[in-house]
Amino acid sequence: MNVYDSERMVEVMEGAGFEQTDRADDADMILLNTCHIREKAAEKVYSELGRFKNLKNEKPNLKVAVAGCVAQAEGEEIMRRQPLVDLVVGPQSYHRLAELEKVAHQTGRAIDTDFPEEDKFNVLGVRPKIKRAPSAFLTVQEGCDKFCAFCVVPYTRGAEVSRPVQNILNEAKELVERGVREITLLGQNVNAYHGEGFQGREYSLAALIWELNKLDGLERIRFTTSHPNDMSLDLLEAHANCEKLMPYLHLPVQSGSDRILKRMNRSHTAQSYIDLVDEIRRARPDILLSGDFIVGFPEETDADFEATLELIREVKYGQAYSFKYSTRPGTPAAERDQLPEKLKTKRLYELQTLLSQQQKTTQDSMIGRDLRVLFEKPGRLEGQLVGKSEYLHAVHVFAPRSLIGSVQSVHITASSSNSLAGSLI
Ligand code: SAH
Ligand code: SF4
What we know:
Elements: H1 2-15, E1 29-34, H2 39-50, H3 53-58, E2 63-68, H4 69-81, E3 87-89, H5 97-107, E4 110-112, H6 120-123, E5 135-139, E6 141-142, H7 153-156, E7 161-162, H8 165-177, E8 182-186, E9 194-196, E10 202-204, H9 205-213, E11 220-224, H10 233-241, E12 248-250, H11 258-263, H12 270-283, E13 288-295, H13 302-315, E14 319-324, H14 341-364, E15 370-378, E16 384-388, E17 394-398, E18 407-415, E19 419-424
Parallel strand pairs: 1-2, 2-3, 3-4, 5-8, 8-11, 12-13, 13-14, 17-19
Antiparallel strand pairs: 6-7, 9-10, 15-16, 15-18, 16-17, 18-19
Helix pairs in contact: 9-10, 13-14
Iron/sulfur cluster binds next to helix 7.
């Protein structure tokens, strides 16, 4: 979502006469978009900011801005800890970035971490009609009302909000006109989407996907991230029957221990998750499952951790993300007794070893198969392209550049650590 937000912030500033540059030395304004989900991500902001000190001394007019969830959560503290910051803007007010930049120019510093009434998506300007890469993100839902005990999202991104279907369709059409062939619908709880649809009806994520399925030129639809409790029947049915919806599902479970799930306030059990996975696989047998795991949550015993490994063995993931529990200020779990760092590290290693084996097995099973690949860009080698299979594996193929942006059949011949290779059929 930060990638998407960054693109939109660039558009706001382009509307105010700025132009994007990759070189900090050239910039009149440096914008850091930040993540607050774990401590490491949040701390990185301060070290990154430190790197701009000399530049700021040399160019006193240079504006340094911090956006995103660290800005939301620690705006005042950032201003205090890092005097070189001129501007702080939270994830719900970045459509005001250009005005804020003016304010910072006039008064020295500006901060906006409000949750404004107006819809930032509506206020954001019309995008320039320049060509885009074949795959794009599109935020359809933001915020979360679930309040898992470890998570800052409900505090930084705010309450759950769904964008109206018409706005999403307009944005999707524009993306397709600009060369996009695959759209990944984004939301912290994307499958809880319930936006204003047509004929006064509220649309579910599945209903939205069926609308997008009608869009000529759009070839692939994905969505992320889903909560197990919001996997509705119509979404399973879409996975079974909707041609453009890709057979890949990111469905975080966090832990395989019911005791820990309860302490996490996850409101599902290990068994209900496994039953759900069975249902999903009945609807779409070849679906590739991905997940998120947290190890070392407060009170997690060896038996709890073993239950997580057991769940992984049972589900068999094609891909996954896993993290050591990180205390986040203001969340309930941060107040509890914490496990030693060493134990967290040991458990993470064990968990990741198992997940990597499963990932490798899934990836290797693609060898000999014919997959459909959306070519996205040139590869590292001369004459090579890289694209994504329906299962989201990166695939390297020797093929002409003219095929970028198209979906082609590819015979898979090899599997390496993070990608597949094959030849055009
Ligand atoms: N809405 C999604 C997840 C959003 S956050 C869901 O409900 O699953 C992305 C991932 O970051 C989470 O799934 C979780 O695994 C991880 N995460 C969130 N807070 C964390 C914390 N305090 N420490 C470690 N990992 C965390
Ligand atoms: Fe965070 Fe996801 Fe839980 Fe919401 S459902 S609180 S985003 S982990």
